């Protein structure tokens, strides 16, 4: 059996791709699985990222699924484990980052781990335990209005402490700047003080490389995707561009967007401003008239031959609030996710072979509906977002807040070149 080095568990599908992307770019051969496989691994790779859809489900169920993934990764020989969450630390008041971390620590019988969503390439930095998104604090970044996980407190020590039974501490930027030995020394002190999970500051990729060295041998790492750039070197691996080659792209081009994040709103606006065809799904209309799905597909069939089309439910915070007040947050989310997943199936039947999906939960629903079990990771379009290949289709799963405003157009240009 091929033994893997790093076993990763991601709490959503776009996050899994983001992590896989960083590992591939740092020299690891990576497969991303959709859910926990029933069979042993049948691929020669250095890391596997098991993607779950556990970010907003019941915290006990999230912990159960994560431990099941851990058991499968252990059986594939993984030497170190990585729990990946969102770079904006998306979690509900009930969890799930804390409860999943607790369950994984128990299952690995380890009394210490770190937690940091820092990903400087994507503008996520942590300073004194406070998370910044670009130039602003988390709760000013638009994340305060997220449909499922509104983030109203940028202090991650506080946010995580409310979710875990472990004591939460901090390894701050001054320690990180002193390097590997200082980080290890700080970890020893924190452990003596009874801290079980340390939030870690990181302002640059250099910080993450330093941190990576100090994490060698730590059984469990919990983080966004950023920390991954520093881990492959611990296993003697170096960047290798051939790790991300995909077959040539074929078929028609479409974008499905169910994200209401600020970056996605800008991307939808950019696509429409270019005069490209776009079809908007209204959740209230959808509730009363499921015929909307076939309407969207009939519309798509008329436009697909002319170039990429966009089908979206993306809405500004005010419009989102109106829908959520009428339908409930969860119900509105599921209604839209199911509709977009069915539309994705219909688009593939219409000949789409290049599909951009915007939104973490949305991507999870689409990938499951398309029956994709394993994704091969290709070239990066923007930080955290690579093209992938599965079932003969090119697909990219864009986390809501990732990507430049021209992302939808750029993604297809990248494939063409
Ligand atoms: P992101 O990556 O931006 O967080 P997600 O897809 O993870 O995006 O989450 C967006 C959630 O909002 C999904 O559950 C989606 O179905 C839901 N949603 C999308 N559009 C609307 C809308 N117009 N009204 C209500 N909910 C919506």
TrEMBL record:
It holds the Pfam family NBD_C. Residues 254-408 form the Four-carbon acid sugar kinase nucleotide binding domain. Residues 6-229 form the Four-carbon acid sugar kinase N-terminal domain. SUPFAM superfamilies: YgbK-like. Keywords: ATP-binding, Carbohydrate metabolism, Kinase, Nucleotide-binding, Transferase. Catalyzes the ATP-dependent phosphorylation of 3-oxo-tetronate to 3-oxo-tetronate 4-phosphate. This is 3-oxo-tetronate kinase. It comes from Sheuella amnicola.
